[in-house]
Amino acid sequence: MILCGGREIPAPEGGWPDEPDTPCCEGMWLDGWAACTCWVPVFNHDHQAPPDETAAKLLAAGLEPTVRPGGMCGDCAYRPDSPEKSGDENYRGDADFLERIAQDGERFWCHDGMLLVTEWRHPSGLTVPGHPGAYIPPIEAAVPYRADGQPGYLCAGWAARRKAIEAKLQGIRERAATRMEG
User: Fold this and answer.
1) Local structure of 99: helix, strand or coil
2) Are 113 and 152 in contact (CB under 8 A)?
3) In this structure, are residues 34 and 143 in contact, taking their beta carbons and an 8 Å threshold?
4) pLDDT one-digit tens code per residue, 90-103
5) Within 10 A of 8 (CB to CB), how many other CB atoms are there?
6) What pLDDT does 158 receive?
7) What are the beta bridge partners of residue 139?
8) Cβ contact 32:19 at 8 Å
9) pLDDT per position as a tens digit, 19-65
10) 27-65 exposure pattern, b = at least 16 Cβ within 10 A, e = fewer
């Protein structure tokens, strides 16, 4: 499953406060605030649970998921000026990664409508902002679901790149077949 952003908890401005005298969990005890497993994500949308596994069953039967309607979103990872294509270290993946998954046909899901972590809240009351690419949708049988409970869309940028690669390969195959016939 390939999604942007991450689940890492960023340090707050000014750094982490002193660790509590009594750690709240094993992660805190072993490696401090960033490794604590008690953080709770706060999302950009209220969300509904996926209604059922119908989408997963259709994918298992060979039906391809829907590509995001309307083409690439405004901050698509496949846009030339995206943080991913620009090599921003704060985002997962880079231009080579995006090219490889399009060549391999490994599905890349659009983040549009997915749950985005806007902040992380610790039971102690400490909060830290979420990463702008920290999408954490509910996932059922390898299908990410949007906040409205519907299956995610395939990334339109990924689909366009994949289609261009397939067209190029088809042209190469046809030229090779013509040479073999002649």
Assistant:
1) helix
2) yes
3) no
4) 887 899 999 999 99
5) 11
6) 96
7) 144
8) yes
9) 888 889 998 999 888 888 899 989 998 877 766 666 667 766 766 78
10) bbeeeebeebeebebebeeebeebeeeebbeebeeeeeb
